[in-house]
Design brief:
Elements (H helix, E strand, L loop, with lengths): L8 H8 L4 E5 L2 H13 L6 E5 L2 H4 L7 E4 L24 H9 L3 E6 L5 H4 L7 E6 L4 E8 L4 H15 L13
The structure holds S-adenosylmethionine.
């Protein structure tokens, strides 16, 4: 499930990797854009789009992995010295805890200024990877259970990292 799917960048990437995706967003216009984008990429049949508050929708849905890219509050997020769970709106921590306790794998998009202390709310073996361009870290992604990067190999990791990219791109990843 892509819990805050926006215009579909991540949901489409997962579908292009062969996954069936449930994509939820509270904003009807963004969800329409996500559907449109999924059609362009030829994956609309693999994605079930749900217009709802994910907090309400979550208990009614069944899935084995949760991608969660909660709203950071716009460009102002960067002015905070330490970003924490409460700075997301809504705070995704209850959903993340529910997922982990029921054996659902989670990947969580985090701003670069996300506080290390706040990461302690996640299980200790959670792994955090950086996504960067040539000059700087753009965002981080926390994974639980930890992904075995060595087993996947770096090439596969690069594809996964692309699949989890927050950026909608005209060069969507080729995952097959
Ligand atoms: C950071 S954006 C996600 C971007 C997305 N990953 C993409 O590739 O386009 C956050 C999204 O969360 C949605 N959102 C905010 N509150 C929500 C809620 N309670 N339930 C579901 N979606 C919500 C917003 O409408 C917004 O589209």
């Amino acid at each position: 499930m892509d819990a805050f799917c926006g215009i579909g960048g991540s949901a489409i990437a997962f579908a292009r990797c062969g996954k069936r995706v449930i994509a939820v967003d509270i904003d009807r216009d963004r969800l329409s854009m996500a559907k449109h984008n999924a059609e362009i990429y030829g994956v609309s049949k693999r994605i079930e789009f749900i217009h709802d508050d994910v907090i309400e929708a979550y208990p009614k849905l069944s899935f084995d992995a949760l991608h969660i890219d909660p709203p950071w509050g716009g460009p102002e997020y960067f002015k905070k010295a330490r970003f924490g769970w409460q700075d997301f709106s809504p705070n995704p921590l209850p959903l993340i805890r529910k997922a982990i306790s029921s054996g659902v794998a989670v990947a969580i998009g985090l701003p670069v200024n996300f506080s290390e202390d706040e990461l302690r709310e996640l299980p200790p073996d959670t792994i955090v990877r950086e996504s960067r361009d040539a000059t700087r870290v753009l965002f981080r992604t926390a994974y639980y259970p930890p992904v075995d990067w060595a087993r996947l190999g770096e090439a596969k990791f690069r594809r996964l990292r692309l699949a989890l990219s927050r950026n909608f791109s005209t060069t969507a990843p080729a995952c097959q």
